Amino acid sequence: MNSAPGTMPSILLVEDDRISAAFLSAALATLPARVHVAEDCAQALAASGPFDAWLIDANLPDGSGAWLLQHLRETDAAASALAHTADATAATRDALLQAGFAEVLVKPLSAQALVRALRAALRGTGGPTHEDVTDWDDRAALKALAGNAEHVASVRQLFLSELPTTRSACLAAFDRGDPTALRAQLHRLQASCGFTGAAALAAIASRWHAAPADPDLREAFATACARLLTAAS
């Protein structure tokens, strides 16, 4: 986080619809958090940061949320980034995740869902962190694979066989300062974690996807991978 420990987090909310902005701003204030509202890309880029999180509309009057995120990242590699959109299609979600957003929230959404998502994105705000999540979530894996335990076991075996290669590719991308390549690797890894129930690694991958320059997340990622591989050996 950009805020000092113990201080209230600061959030940049980018939303051009005034009614939506008022609802989202009021919900975010209950975190509690300081909320700065921008109506478009120009106002967002002119906002005085740093911010701990950005909540960005996918479609704005003067550009896309993906374009805005790319430019915000030029001056801040640490802030968490979440997109919000009324488009619930998988294609839109995948495109926004690939652009660098850690999560995509579909409108309309409840205040409770919004607060949960921001708490999960912000470190130290009471949301779940990777330390709070088990390595394997059997229930999630069974749900993803229609309750077939044999399929879960075989998919996890394949996942673990490919994890050393994925780990090396992620660490190499970080070490050479290539956030685009790192995010591409993490995006694919998050999907695999979802099918296998690799919950702790998925949580770290999501955070690292949002802040690819964070060295602490690099170490957390390497540790989580090593833990899974050691337990499987």
Please characterize this protein's 3D structure.
There is one protein chain. The chain is α/β, with parallel strands linked by helices. The chain has two domains: 10-121, Response regulator (Rossmann fold), CATH 3.40.50; 130-232. 55% of the residues lie in helices and 12% in strands. The protein has ten helices and seven strands. The strands form two sheets. A five-stranded parallel β-sheet has the order 2-1-3-6-7, sandwiched between helices. α8 packs antiparallel against α9 (199-210). The chain starts with 9 loop residues before the first strand and ends with a helix. Mean pLDDT is 86; it is low at 124-132.
Count of discrete structural domains: 2
Contiguous runs where pLDDT drops below 50 for at least 5 residues? 124-132
Radius of gyration: 18 Å
Task: Classify the fold: give the CATH topology of the largest domain.
Answer: Rossmann fold
Average pLDDT: 86
Q: Quick one: CATH superfamily of the largest domain? A: Response regulator
